[in-house]
């Protein structure tokens, strides 16, 4: 039981040392992730359509 209490206390002490990002930093990072995901999805969709058209043309 002492090990668990020690672990919790040490974890709490470490969390105090963490420098958490600001709200603006988090929002800008989320925007980058969403934009990148949309761009990659569009590119993969276009590749899929082009490959489908190519295969249909061959067969």
Give a description of the structure.
The chain is mainly alpha-helical. The chain has a domain at about 20-59. It is built from two helices and no strands. The protein has helices at about 1-15, 25-59. The chain is elongated and about 70 Å long. The termini are far apart.
Structure summarized in a few sentences:
With 59 residues, this protein is mostly helical. The protein is built from two helices and no strands.
Index terms:
single chain; 59 residues; mainly alpha; 88% helix; elongated
What overall geometry do the principal axes of the alpha carbons give?
Answer: elongated
Poorly predicted tracts of residues: none
In DSSP terms (H or I, runs of 4 or more residues), the helix count works out at 2
What percent of residues adopt helix (DSSP H or I)?
Answer: over 70%
Largest sheet: none
**Portion in strands:** under 5%
Summarize model confidence as the mean pLDDT.
Answer: 96
Terminus-to-terminus distance: 69 Å
Radius of gyration: 24 Å
Oligomer: single chain
Q: What is the number of E strands?
A: 0
Structural class by SSE content: mainly alpha
SSE string, helix = H, strand = E?
HH
Chart the SSEs and their pairings:
Layout: H1 2-17, H2 23-58
């Amino acid at each position: 039981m002492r090990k668990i209490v020690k672990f919790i206390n040490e974890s709490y002490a470490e969390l105090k040392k963490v420098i958490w990002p600001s709200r603006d930093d988090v929002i800008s990072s989320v925007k980058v992730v969403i934009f990148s995901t949309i761009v990659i999805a569009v590119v993969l969709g276009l590749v899929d359509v082009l490959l489908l058209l190519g295969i249909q043309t061959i067969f």
